[in-house]
Amino acid sequence: MALGDLWVCAIYNKTLKVLVIDVFLSGGSFAYLRVELGDFMAFIAAGNIILEYVIGGAAVARSWTSYFATLCNHKPDDFRLIAHSLPEDYGHLDPIAVFVCAAICVLAVLSTKGSSRFNYIASIIHVVVILFIIVAGLAKADTKNYADFSPNGARGIFVASAVLFFAYIGFDAVATMAEETRNPARDIPIGLVGSMSITTMAYCLMAVTLCLMVPYTKIDEDAPFSVAFETVGWGWAKYVVAAGALKGMTTVLLVSAVGQARYLTHIARTHMMPPWLAHVNERTGTPVNATIVMLAATAIVGFFTKLDILSNLLSISTLFIFMLVALALLVRRYYVSGITTQENRVKLIMCIVAILGSSVATAVIWGTADEDSWLGYVITIPLWFCATLALKLLVPQARDPKLWGVPLVPWLPSASILINIFLLGSIDRKSFIRFAAWTGFLLVYYFLFGLHASYDTAKASGENKVEDGLKNVEEGAVSSRTGL
Q1: CA 176 – CA 181 distance, rounded (Å)
Q2: Nearest Cα to 7, choosing from 252, 329, 233?
Q3: How many distinct helices (H) and strands (E) make up the chain?
Q4: Nearest-CA neighbor of 317 among 397, 411, 436?
Q5: Which ranges of 72-111 does DSSP label H, i.e. alpha helix?
Q6: pTM for the complete prediction?
């Protein structure tokens, strides 16, 4: 939700001459959270962002196998190895997913420009296929499929909404490309808002089309659109859809590979992770080490893990990051060191604690109580409203955005915190256990290695001086030589 303020952090200030603050030049939410909430929260967020990319890539790679099987008139498991000695959720081994990840790794390592050209051409084809699915699918629409519009009630809607965040992890990758954008102050906002608007509209139209073609109970989990066309008697169309889906997923994997490697590079530059991951190949201009490591992890996860496990775990990480960015926006707008008084800082902390507490309580009630139980919400929702209103009325804003900014502060970021945490209450317990295990690993690594390495690096490089230069960039004091 804090995209507007995040864009400012992505501006490239060429007057600094050297890339000593390149972690701030791009890096999306990691850079934003590091500025506003500090290294610790930024590292936890970064670890979950990496998890997002790995799991998202693994899920897409496994879906690639499913659509490839459909294209070959086979079921997805026909192309997978069933290991009966492994648990059911991890026993459907997918060697094709590994091969696809390896091929994407080669493309991503060779050239960013070459990858961009491939994506440009592939995107045109993708748009044509999406239009075909919508037009042809609506030609076979049956409105009776919507007779039972909400068969699982409100809980079913919110559970699906929580998993839906699976589809929105790629937008933050736009911000990671700021260093490779000519005019990031203009292009990054256009890229983020434009792509998100178009993609959301496409998601909605395709979901409506799919449910009008076949009843929701007959939607295939592995290759829904291909099977849907076959179900309505257009067997030939499933090949067009499957081929388009393969192309689209290949593009997604390539964009994800480029974005996740940049993320890992930015984190490694702070020495929170091994600095050799930040190495950029002089010939190709790409972060080879980071690309190989991330796609190797993606291939391993994709080889073993089923799609439903990946989607739930991915949604937890995504919702968690969205909540942190919204929280960071409140901190950014209402707190500036040396300007915000002690009294206002206490008020800010109390309001944020109340917003978080009421949001968590709402999610717990939703996740544990019956959906018809409304008494708890009568307490938690007004508490959230009063905390947000108190922040609006009692704490003066310490900073206004100079270039781009989120409107309706504090209501919009506060609502984002409430909604994201609320949706977390719709995700199953096992996914939270896996998420907790990953977060625990991050904490152990940070306190044993990352904390000391990043502190030593900051001390040696005089990071405080660099942050003074960054502050000028954040406040809009951009040199005319930047062309922004």
Answers
A1: 10
A2: 329
A3: 19, 2
A4: 436
A5: 95-110
A6: 0.78
In this structure, how many other beta carbons lie within 10 angstroms of the beta carbon of residue 117?
A: 11
Can you tell me the distance from the alpha carbon of 291 to that of 261, in angstroms, rounded to the nearest whole number? Answer: 5
Read off the tokens for 60: 């897409």
Distance from C-alpha of 205 to C-alpha of 228, rounded to nearest angstrom: 15
Non-local (6+) Cβ contacts of 136 within 8 A are: 229, 234, 237
DSSP element (H, E) containing 227 = helix 224-231
Show the tokens assigned to 315.
Answer: 């949604």
Query: Position 134: which residue type?
Result: I
Q: Which pLDDT tens digit goes with each residue over 13-47? A: 332 222 222 333 445 677 778 888 888 888 888 88
What's at 249, amino acid-wise? M
Mean pLDDT of 309-321: 82
- Encoded amino acid at 197, one letter: S
Q: Which residues pair with 92 in a beta bridge?
A: 82
Q: Which residues pair with 82 in a beta bridge?
A: 92
User: Across residues 202-220, what is the average pLDDT?
Assistant: 90
CA angle 161, 164, 165 (to 5 degrees): 105
Distance (Å, whole) CA 87 – CA 68:
25
